[in-house]
Amino acid sequence: MDAEAPILEVRDLSVSFRSQGRDVPIVEKVSFAVGAREILGIVGESGSGKSVTAMTIMGLIDAPGVRVTGSALFRGQELIGMPQKALRRLRGREIAMIFQDPMTAFTPVYTIGWQIDEQIRAHEKLGKAEARSRTVRLLGDMGVPDPERTANRYPHQLSGGLRQRAMIAMALSCNPALLIADEPTTALDVTVQAQILDLIRTLRADYGSSVLLITHDMGVVAKTCDRVMVLYSGRIAERGPCDAIFAHPGHPYTAALLDSIPPLTGPRPERLPSIAGAPPPPLERPAGCAFAPRCHFTHDTCQALPPLLRYGQQDIACVLPKEGRPMPPRVTEYAQ
Amino acid sequence: MAAALLRRLGQTLFVLFGISVLVFLVFFATPGADPTARIAGKNASPETMAKVRHEYGFDRPLPVQYATMMKKLFITRDLASYVDRGELVVPEIIEAAPVTLSLATGGAVIWVLASVTMGTLAAAFRGTWIDRGLMIAGLIGISIPVFWLGQVANLITQARYHDSWLFSWVPGLGYVPFTESPVGWFKVLIIPWIVLAVLFIGIYGRVLRADLVAVSGEDFMRTARAKGLSPARVLLRHGLRTSMITFVSLFGLDFAQLIGGGALLTEVVFGLQGVGRLTYQALSNLDLPLIMASVMYSAVFVVLANAVVDVIYVFLDPRVRDGR
């Protein structure tokens, strides 16, 4: 996998919004790469900048006063600053996106099939019938029962799970190289969640797509991703292979996130550990480590912004490993 | 389908009954509305008064009078005016209805086309001078009183510049039936249509723009953009199509009101003998039969227009289709 060039390579991506005469940094110098057929998870709380990162890559942020710097190379093409017309050709065809809430993500007045046909025909010169037959095949592949009839139904007539499957079918309709899934399971109930995650995992085998999976749920990451990037308050906290991070979280924030997942085996805890406090709003972000105010290990050296350092297989934005006091490995095992 | 139609019919009858009773009672509760005195004329002798009262049945109980009036209006259709004696009311309405229908329908076509164009353009160019210019134009349209605009239009096309090449085609005020001459009908109505439409273009254009702007923040619009569709397609096929649902419900209300005689001022300014004008006459003369007939007529159209809007709704919004 490493031999191949990454599909997407993001370097020092920063996004800031202008508000009341000040630039509010939302995302600060985020770098990551998604290899071919790889599933990269981006994890973070609400407001950590994970959705903004995805929307920026798609070129979907065009609010006035937004400043984007850095670079995002998609198969060698620079996405940042690419004209809308060229972006439009990539969107939906090379890079497709699945959204969080399948209830509201379809236009309510058209059938599911019509909307998938529309995307196919926006990018490929296909007749109505050909587009529809591909739509029906895709819906069937996504595990939608009776795809022909479902294609003729309106979004409100389908359950959340079916709608999300239809959404994924639509995203895959032009065989994209990269699929960005922005919290694809958050609005679904747990059993459906597991099915959708399974589906996403099989995509790379069946369609050869790389996936950028955005979530706030470490459990989802554990089940799905190859590599993971933890964002905190718009900055990278930790980045590395999934197994390594789950076994030896290097950043106290990652460790705390992992502690908050209920264990599958062993005695049932009285109360799950939680992280006291709340992430700082972008304007009050400390100059040093953003997690310092909530961290158990805070000390003087946290006043300076910790650089992203390699430690084992991971990149960690924390001073602890360098100071020779890395986080202890975790004892809880996760059923993968 | 049949059940829905029957239900709608029942609703209509109920609405008509309610309104007619209300109009009837309000009329008899109005001071100075006593029809006997008006029919008998000024300084009539008590004997004449008594005779008129008996002849017209005003000495009978109100429910009986009501029933008689309804029978004359709907069944025998020989209800006569109290003011112009012998003038039958139903033919008067039948004569006035096509005028109002023509005026309101033509105006509606213009205002729908113009306001959809205006609202969509403004939303597409949101924040630019095109947007601002269109919205200010809309506000001006809303603020201009229709009678003033009509008078100015008349002044220009009928008097001041009538002899110029630009307006020499404008016929004199009045109405030409469509069956008599379609071209004449169009010529005589085109200026009233535009004058009537100006206010609505302003309102609808602004409402549609606001709606489109609100819709543009919806998730499905983001999905449409993420699909790689062109901005025009996103705006028209996804945004405008969804916004039409609000637009149509607003339209139904206004159109029904106009058909029912709400275009009174336009009718008066352009000398069109429509239902609005008829209602106005009836009210100023306190002529109960004519009031009753025109109110019944408007009520029928309001209910009818609502039914049509409901049908269009079903076409526009699949969620409504399943809701029934």
From TrEMBL, chain A:
Its main location: membrane. InterPro entries: AAA+_ATPase, ABC_Ni/Peptide_Import, ABC_transporter-like_ATP-bd, Oligopep_ABC_C, P-loop_NTPase. The keyword Translocase applies. It is found in: Cell inner membrane. SMART domains: AAA (SM00382). It is a peripheral membrane protein. Residues 10-258 form the ABC transporter domain. GO terms for molecular function: ATP binding. Signal peptide: none annotated. It comes from the Bacteria. Keywords: ATP-binding, Cell inner membrane, Cell membrane, Membrane, Nucleotide-binding, Translocase, Transport. Pfam families: ABC_tran, oligo_HPY. The keyword ATP-binding applies. Belongs to the ABC transporter superfamily. This is ABC transporter ATP-binding protein. It comes from Acetobacter sacchari.
Automatic annotation (TrEMBL), chain B:
Residues 97-313 form the ABC transmembrane type-1 domain. Belongs to the binding-protein-dependent transport system permease family. The chain crosses the membrane at residues 12-30, 108-127, 134-156, 184-204, 245-270, 290-316. It is found in: Cell membrane. This is ABC transporter permease. It comes from the Bacteria. Pfam families: BPD_transp_1, BPD_transp_1_N. Keywords: Cell membrane, Membrane, Transmembrane, Transmembrane helix, Transport. The keyword Transmembrane helix applies. InterPro entries: BPD_transp_1_N, MetI-like, MetI-like_sf. It is a multi-pass membrane protein.
